[in-house]
Write a structure and sequence with these properties.
The chain is an alpha/beta fold and 458 residues long. The chain has two domains: 252 residues, Aldehyde Dehydrogenase, Chain A, domain 1 (3-Layer(aba) Sandwich); 181 residues, Aldehyde Dehydrogenase, Chain A, domain 2, CATH 3.40.309. Helix content is 43%, strand content 19%. The strands form four sheets. Strands 11-12-13-10-9-14-15 form a seven-stranded mixed beta sheet, with helices on both faces. β14, α16 and β15 form a beta-alpha-beta unit. It is an enzyme of class 1 (oxidoreductase). Belongs to the LuxC family. Pfam families: LuxC. It catalyses: a long-chain fatty aldehyde + NADP(+) + CoA = a long-chain fatty acyl-CoA + NADPH + H(+).
């Protein structure tokens, strides 16, 4: 199975073959070497894409998402097997991730995102009430594979604004993008023919520069170092969107626990800390819980984490991560022996860990289903405790009720958080979320307004 998607119009353009090694597997692919010719081909593909009504684009993506929603859909099963092999996640975890990502691509969610950001989606087809929105001709997408299916979100945003795409597939999930595009080609060839998906190494500056020569916009995912390297090469005229290292956490009040109930709060926290084996930016690194409920919550979370591990088994933990996780357990037990903390851990290996502590400590971000419960006097104290990390804030699971919910949510927004949700929903953002705090559809377009022209109707 090739991990590349090369449209038929590009098959005659010079390519080099490569083998992408990831995990314990290796997959073949092709990479164009004449990117100027690819740019010319994408310009032709763009003319056809521009002629597609946005309603047809939404309809086609919805049809693809409907097919991929079936657990036994052969391309989904093949992509899931590759993701399991490369990421080490269990098949159940991969399927949950695909359900979450692909569920956002149904028509109702796409239209909701378009209306929220553009008002009238048909401004992408031409002038409506004297205004129209024009997307870039070509978007370079440098994608990350820490969450299966994640590339679909930015790929679809670009196609919605009628931009062609060069997609750099993630090494940690090489199978999804090309498989998704093959299904898209079956449904609407014009859309799939507007995308070239391939791979090049992080140190391959020559290929990156050649692709940048034909791009009008860049969307980059990755760690801070990887994003900085791309940012340094982006040209002044190019739109640039970056999704670097982010930090998420939870915050729970005593009143929320009393209102929702201790077992349900614990279930929600365990779900947040277990989804995607806690490797997503949206996954909480710590849950700050009001001191009066923290111990009871932690004990219940331990039982809920056990159930999560039974229902959706964790993936394999590689040797280096296992050493880190074992060290975290030892440190937590050492601290608990001289404080009011406690540690609960799966008796059968490293499947899950719950730590109750009274101090935040440096946040490691190691993941692997570690629920850190830190006792705080109240929600305001929790907000202040997280303030030093504000530069990387993304997502907060806020367990609060009444006026306190609205007040603390606004405090978090001013601190830098770009998404507040209820515990249990942290890893499942909707398509209408302004990803990392910016409009990601409207952010790609430029507007043209017709003013003071008596003969113009539209």
């Amino acid at each position: 199975m090739s991990v590349s998607w090369i449209p038929r119009w590009a098959e005659e353009i010079a390519q080099e073959r490569f083998t992408l090694s990831a995990g314990d597997g290796a997959w073949p692919g092709g990479r164009p070497t004449d990117w100027a010719a690819i740019g010319a081909g994408l310009a032709r593909a763009h003319r056809e894409l521009r002629a597609l009504p946005v309603a047809r684009i939404v309809e086609a993506i919805d049809t693809v998402a409907e097919r991929w929603a079936k657990p036994d859909f052969p391309p989904r099963r093949a992509a899931a097997r590759v993701a399991v092999e490369v990421t080490g996640m269990s098949e159940a975890t991969v399927d949950r991730a695909l359900d979450a990502e692909l569920g956002n691509l149904r028509a109702e969610h796409l239209y909701a995102a378009l209306r929220r950001e553009l008002g009238d989606p048909e401004v992408l087809d031409g002038f409506r009430a004297g205004t129209t929105a024009i997307g870039p001709r070509t978007v370079l997408g440098v994608f990350s594979g820490n969450v299966p299916g994640l590339p679909a979100r930015s790929l679809v945003r670009a196609l919605l604004v009628k931009s062609t795409v060069v997609a750099k597939i993630p090494a940690r999930e090489p199978g999804f993008t090309a498989a998704f595009l093959r299904t898209l080609h079956e449904v609407e060839p014009v859309l799939a023919d507007a995308v070239v998906a391939t791979y090049w190494g992080r140190d391959d500056d020559a290929t990156l520069d050649a692709v940048l020569d034909i791009a009008d916009a860049v969307v980059a995912y990755g760690g801070d170092e990887a994003c900085a390297a791309i940012r340094a090469r982006v040209r002044p005229h190019q739109l640039y969107e970056e999704h670097g290292h982010k930090l998420s956490f939870g915050l729970v009040s005593e009143e929320y626990v009393r209102t929702v109930g201790l077992p349900e709060v614990a279930r929600r926290i365990a779900a947040d800390c277990s989804d995607f084996d806690q490797h997503a930016c949206l996954s909480p690194q710590v849950y700050l819980v009001a001191a009066g409920q923290a111990r009871a919550v932690a004990a219940q979370v331990a039982e809920a984490m056990r159930r999560e591990a039974d229902d959706c088994p964790p993936g394999r933990v590689d040797e280096d991560a296992a050493v880190v996780l074992a060290h975290r357990r030892v440190l937590a037990r050492w601290r608990a022996a001289s404080s009011d903390g406690e540690v609960w851990a799966s008796p059968d290996g490293l499947r899950w860990t719950v730590v109750l502590d009274d101090a935040l400590l440096p946040l490691s971000g190691a993941g692997n289903r570690v629920a850190r419960i830190v006792a705080v006097p109240d929600l305001d104290a929790g907000v202040e405790l997280m303030r030093p990390y504000a530069r990387h804030f993304q997502n907060v699971g806020l367990g609060a009720v009444g006026d306190e919910l609205h007040r603390v949510a606004f405090d978090l927004a001013r601190l830098g958080v770009c998404r507040v949700t209820e515990p249990g929903a942290m890893t499942r953002p909707g398509m209408t979320w302004r990803h990392d705090g910016q409009p990601r559809i409207a952010g790609l377009v430029r507007w043209c307004d017709v003013e003071r022209h008596a003969g113009f109707v539209g």
